[in-house]
Each structure stands twice: as structure tokens, then as C-alpha cells.
Design goal:
By secondary structure, the protein is α/β, with parallel strands linked by helices. The protein is about 30% helix and about 20% strand. The strands form two sheets. A six-stranded parallel sheet has the order 3-2-1-5-4-6, sandwiched between helices. It has a three-stranded antiparallel sheet with strand order 7-8-9, with helices on one face.
């Protein structure tokens, strides 16, 4: 099904498109694992990656959802979308999705402290669109998709448990601390097993060394 046909079909079905505006220079492994988990959460038929300029990245993401080289604002009307922005003044509510076709999530890896890149790179592209936050803190991409899905289904933010910060133990002496917000499902944080395995492996060290050499 083409995207235009899918949008037309979505108008008569009770679900949204979940749109990730890709904003990193490349689809690295960490980013890919978050994208993969987002695809599992909502299904590849409901996930759209926009602003994917690199053909290799487009091919990589094609197995996770629909891929478009255009920005989201070239595809959806501003009045038909909700943008998730940590700096938006109002919190996301189920009624915000009435009459909307898509929710837009920035495809940005977290910064600590945050630099407000979602506002600059996403929200400012569509100043007349509805922008909402899902809490005062940075969520992972897949975590934001999970929260948006629940709220779109009628669950209020206050009913979604969230954990600030996540510790991943490497061995008896060392651990990794991720200073972000993670929604919980059955008491467990929303994070992909692939990402956890990557973080505790030697592979991430080798990848960082390659980046430094470049």
C-alpha cells in the first residue's frame, strides 16, 4: 500500500501513524536498536521514518517500516499531527489525538544535559501544529513511541509508570548508567534486549574507537 493510500485508509480506522523524523547523521547500532523496538511496539505498518536522505540508511530501515526521504511536514498537514516535544508547555492527553493522522517523534539520540534539539529540528518546522510533552525528562525514541501509543489508546500519562535513570550491570565491578526516562511495562523498563546486549559487549567500545579515528 502506498503512503497516500495508507493515510486515506487510516482516517476510517482507530489508530495513528507513528512518525520518526530521522535527524542523526547515520543509523548507528544504538539508534537502529531503538528504531527496531519502536517497530515492534506499534508494528511496521504503522511506523514511518521520514527525512531519511541516505540510501543505505533507507535500505536498513525498510524492514522496520515505511521509509520516506521527505520531512514529515512535506507529507502531513500541520493540523493533522501531534508533535512530541520535551519543551512543549502542555502534557499529552488522549483527546489531543482527535482528528489527527500522525504523531511525530524526533529520531534523536539523547543528550545529557538535553540541548532542546527537538524544538529546533522538529517543532519549529510546524509552528502551527499541536506540540505536547510526555513528562519533564528525556525519553528514548522507543520509550516515547510506547507512551504515545498508550495515550492514543485512551490511557492518561498519570497512569503510565515511568522510571528515571537505568543502571545496566556489566559485571561485579562495573555498570552503565543511562540518565533518561523509561516507561515501565509489567515493572520492566521499555528498552530493547539488543541494545542492552550491545551496551554490555565489547562491540560498543570498538565502534566508539572507529568513530574517534574518523
Amino acid at each position: 500500500m502506498t503512503l497516500n493510500g495508507a493515510v486515506k485508509n487510516a482516517r476510517c480506522q482507530p489508530f495513528l501513524f507513528f512518525v520518526i523524523e530521522h535527524l542523526e547523521p547515520e543509523v548507528g547500532k544504538w539508534l537502529y536498536f531503538e528504531y527496531m523496538n519502536a517497530s515492534r511496539i506499534v508494528g511496521k505498518d504503522r511506523l514511518i521514518f521520514t527525512n531519511v536522505k541516505n540510501m543505505k540508511d533507507a535500505e536498513t530501515l525498510s524492514g522496520l517500516g515505511t521509509v520516506r526521504h521527505e520531512s514529515f511536514i512535506e507529507i502531513f498537514s500541520p493540523e493533522k499531527i501531534v508533535i512530541l516535544d520535551p519543551r512543549a508547555p502542555e502534557r499529552l492527553k488522549p483527546e489531543d489525538f482527535a482528528g489527527k493522522e500522525a504523531v511525530i517523534i524526533g529520531g534523536i539520540l539523547g543528550d545529557h544535559p538535553p540541548r532542546g534539539r527537538t524544538r529546533k529540528l522538529v517543532t519549529d518546522k510546524a509552528p502551527s501544529s499541536l506540540s505536547r510533552n510526555i513528562g519533564r525528562g528525556q525519553f528514548s525514541i522507543d520509550g516515547a513511541v510506547y507512551v504515545a501509543k498508550l495515550v492514543s489508546e485512551g490511557i492518561g500519562l498519570e497512569s503510565i509508570p515511568v522510571k528515571r535513570g537505568l543502571r545496566i550491570r556489566i559485571n561485579d565491578k562495573f555498570e552503565i548508567y543511562l540518565p533518561y526516562m523509561y516507561p515501565l511495562r509489567d515493572g520492566k523498563p521499555i528498552i530493547s534486549d539488543e541494545l542492552v546486549n550491545y551496551l554490555i559487549s565489547d562491540e560498543i567500545i570498538r565502534d566508539e574507537e572507529k568513530i574517534l579515528r574518523k
